[in-house]
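[Automated response] Your request has been received and processed.

Submitted sequence:
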Amino acid sequence: MFMFTSKCHFSLVLISLLSCTTNQARLTVSPSSSQFFEYDFVSLSCEEDDSSAGWTLRRNTSKQQRTQCGDGWGKPAGSSCNISYIDPLESGVYWCESREGPISNMVNLTVTGGSVILQSPVLPVMEGDDVTLLCKTKTTPSNLPAAFYKDGSLIRKQPTGHMTIQHVSRSDEGLYKCDISGHGESPSSWITVTDKHTTTPPPTFTPPPTSTSSSLSLPVLSVLSSVGSVIAFLLLLVRCICRKDTDKDAVYSTARTEDIKNKDNKSKIRDTESVAVYSAMRLKASVMG
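Generated structure:
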């Protein structure tokens, strides 16, 4: 019975450890923007509390999948990765990943060879906050008149290239871009709005419907699938161990009962035989006498 209890207890503890959450990193981008001009300097950092987690910066682009900083791109610098001259081919999804499996929030970076970009929040914004969008060119001052669009429709035109959305709500979530007359149009960037009362970390970045969006959920699905399979296997193992040990106890108990019954039957037979022999001897003695 002790073996049964200890085995089940150990297995349940193992499952609990596997189910525990790990400190998550937070990926930040400097300068804080989701769009960059070709040859701009960009620094990405994995900010976290547990330095022993061993976070690595990875990315998915149209050419490569899950490559890490230093593997043909970027230069690792502690928990950061610096890209000195970013290229349009480096547009894609970036995230931090630990040796244990958990990943950080994801950001979608767009690099353009054009002359206009839209500077917008790279991380999800909280409902009720103010958000400022900046439409800028590569060579001229960033205070030129600009038109701002959401989901393909004109919002308004601003004389200085800045537009502030006050007290954002879920309805402000969408795909934004801007246009400066005589210079061109920026790429589009997705702005995510999270619930102000959310107590858990905000959801991972939801990209616009581009070719890179299909690769966004790949690391998440891989991690969840692996952990789920291990936990399911361990639960099945615990059930088998507990059932096996219970069956052993039942068999042992039945065997003990049968053994006791057999001993009682044998004892009764011996007693009966002894009485019969004694009676025969007395009868013989009386006859002879």
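Summary generated for your ticket: The radius of gyration is 37 Å. The first helix runs from residue 2 to 19.
If you did not submit this request, please reply to this message.
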